[in-house]
Every structure is written in structure tokens, then in C-alpha cells.
Amino acid sequence: MVAVVTPDGFCLYANAGLETMIGQSRRSLVKSSLLDWFREPAQLHEAIQAVSRNEFATRRFEGALRRSVVGFTDPLPVHVIVSQTEPSHQRILVEMLEIEQQTRQDREERAMGQAQITKELIRNLAHEIKNPLGGIRGAAQLLAMDLPSPELTEYTQVIIHEADRLQTLVDRLLAPHRKPHVIGDVNIHEVCERVRALVLAEHSRGLSVERDYDASLPEFRGDREQLIQALLNIVHNACQALNERIEQGDARIVLRTRVARQVTIGKQRYRLALELHVEDNGPGIPDSLKERIFYPLVSGREGGSGLGLTLAQTFVQQHQGTIECDSEPGRTVFKILIPLP
Fold first, then answer.
1. Residue 152 shares a structural domain with residue 162
2. Which member of 97, 143, 252, 282 lies 3.0 to 4.6 Å from 241 by CB, making a disulfide possible if both were Cys?
3. Same-domain status, 117 and 94
4. Which helix (H) or strand (E) holds 236?
5. Distance CA 263, CA 273 (A)
6. Spatial distance between the Cα atoms of 112 and 337, rounded to a whole number of angstroms
């Protein structure tokens, strides 16, 4: 949210973000004082005056922005940056960042940076493991041919089986880098229905998968198969967390789609975005795993590979999107955000 004001706070310009957040048209905003829209205007007035007198090039503080949007009566906490724009200091730039949004943006940037570092580490490690695996498997096969006793070949079969299992794991680690993009028009509800059908075929009893779709969502360009795999991985994780409830017969997953407006993903602002929620009524994610669930090889269940959510995040990031998670006992929500045209 951006405004340009005079040294006394009179608004000369307001961008669309400020217009949307306050709930007033730009025409009405530029006819008023920006100070009127702050719960404590004295702090903003002091900062504008100090910058206009060239005492500071920039001033920062925490404030609260009043709103007249229906349903949003509480002031919006914002981080305010007041800066000079010209040598005469008669036009002052005021930037307002939602504190919650800034926190989320910092978290997303850290997650994306960590994901990139982890991705490169895993890829390099996978390549290093792949080469000796072939030699181990080949040596075990040759040894099996020369062993005199069938009982002894059981040991070589164990070696071959475990080498194959590791090979499968390595292939899954490398899959996101190898798989070519097949770009086309994607209908997110077709993706949801495909995943829903697959899950219900696997869990025909004890689990309900409910739909809550926004039919106004447009198609967008993307890789349909990657998105199916990403959503399937998230829903499969939910099913595994719901095992006890499935046995009791009251397990529930909700697939919910909405249009999100004025969304920031990373450092990029998008006018529209797809918001896809996967909600379950499972036990929730342990606190010890919440910050690490998208890391590779981190799993909350016995025998899990810890790759499902990592691959899901990778595929969504390849669509310039991100995945967020909010979890508490009885309710876990994974939210996929993907920009729309």
C-alpha cells in the first residue's frame, strides 16, 4: 500500500492496494488527509514533518490503519515507511506493509531459500548414491550366480532388494528435476475430482471427501499432472493422519477452492490467485514437526519416506505458488496458493 503526501499529510496519490485495504476510492482518498486514516495520526505526522525537513531520509514505525471495508472494522496493524522522493521534499512517500503479511513474506522467503538449498543438496547426494548402487547390485547378481548353495543366494537377494529400494528412493528425489513440464490449460476442479476419485477408491469406507468449490475460478496455464501429484501427496498425508478416524468411520477431508485477491507470494504481488484448501479432522501435526514438514526425509509416521510434501512444495513452486500449513488438534489445513492470470 503506497501513498504520496504533502508535508502536512494531504494525499496526492494512493495506489490500488491502499484503496482496496481502506475501502475508499482513490478519488476520495486524494481529497483527504492520510492522517485521518491512522488510529494515532500524531506519529505519522511527526515522521512526515521530520522527513520533509530533511532531518531523516527515512523513518519507520508501527501503526494502525483505519478501514471502512464491510466486515473489517478493526484497525489494520501496519509497518510504515516514510521516505523522501525529491530534493524539494514537498512530496513524501508513505509505504504501509501489513505486519502479518510482512511476517508471512519473510517466512516464505526463508522457506523458498531453504527449499532451494535443500534441493541442490539432495540432488547432489542422490547422484553420489546412484553410482555405487549400480555397482553393489551388479556385484550381488554376479555373486548369486557363483554361489553353490541356494540358501546363500537368499543373502544376495536381500542385497539386490535393498539396492532396488534405495534406487527407487533416489529416483523420487531426482524426479522433480527430470520431469518435463507439460503446460496446458488447467481446471483446478478437474484436478480435485481426479484426486478425490483416487482417494475414495482406496478408502471406500470410513472417509468422506467433501467438495466446497468456487465455480467462478478461471482456468490457468500449468502442468496438470504435477498439480494432481502435488494435491494427491497432501491428501494422502491427510489420509494417513486419519487412520484411526477412518477405522471409527468419521474421517473427513474437505477440498475447498476460492479466489484470493491482492496476494503477495514471495516478493511478487498478484491481483488474483487460486486458494485451494485441504482440510482434515485428524490429530494435527506435532509441534516438533511443524517447522520442518516440507523438508525432505522428514516424516511423522513409521516407514514414511518424508518426500510427499517436499515434492508437493516443489511442484507448486514451479507454478510460482506456495503451500502454507495451519494445524491444531482436530483440524489441519494445507493451503495452496497459485497466481491466476
1. yes
2. 282
3. no
4. helix 224-241
5. 7
6. 14
Considering 39, 69, 102, which residue would you say is the last residue of a domain? Answer: 102
Range of the domain at 117: 103-178
Average pLDDT on 16-40 reads: 86
Calpha distance 219→186 (Å, rounded):
5
Closest C-alpha to 227, from 321, 159, 107, 330: 321
Burial of 105 (0-12, 13-18, 19+ CB in 10 A): middle
Compute the residue count for the chain: 341
Say if residue 145's pLDDT is above 90. no
Q: Is the pTM above the cut of 0.85?
A: no
The number of distinct structural domains making up the chain is 3
Do residues 259 and 311 share a domain? yes
User: Over the stretch 280-332, which tens digit does the pLDDT of each residue have?
Assistant: 999 998 887 877 777 766 655 555 556 678 888 888 988 999 998 888 999 99
DSSP track, 41-56: HHHHHHHHHHHHTTS-
Each residue of 188-207: b (16+ CB within 10 Å) or e? Answer: bbebbebbbeebeeebeeeb
Q: How many angstroms separate the CA atoms of 76 and 97, rounded?
A: 10
What residues have CB less than 8 Å from 119, skipping those under 6 apart? 176, 314
For the chain, helix, strand, coil in percent to 5 are 45, 30, 25
Give per-residue pLDDT as tens, 188-243.
Answer: 999 999 999 999 988 888 999 999 999 999 999 998 988 998 999 999 999 999 99
Task: Give the burial class of 154: count Cβ atoms within 10 A of its Cβ; 0-12 exposed, 13-18 middle, 19 or more buried.
Answer: exposed
32 plus 81 within the same structural domain: yes
Which residues touch 305 (CB under 8 Å, ≥6 apart)? 169, 172, 297, 299
Mean pLDDT, the chain, as a whole number? 84
Do residues 288 and 199 both lie within one domain? yes
Specify the pLDDT at position 174: 66
Q: Specify whether 97 is located in the same domain as 41.
A: yes
To the nearest whole percent, how much of the chain has pLDDT over 90?
38
CATH number (domain holding residue 16): 3.30.450.20
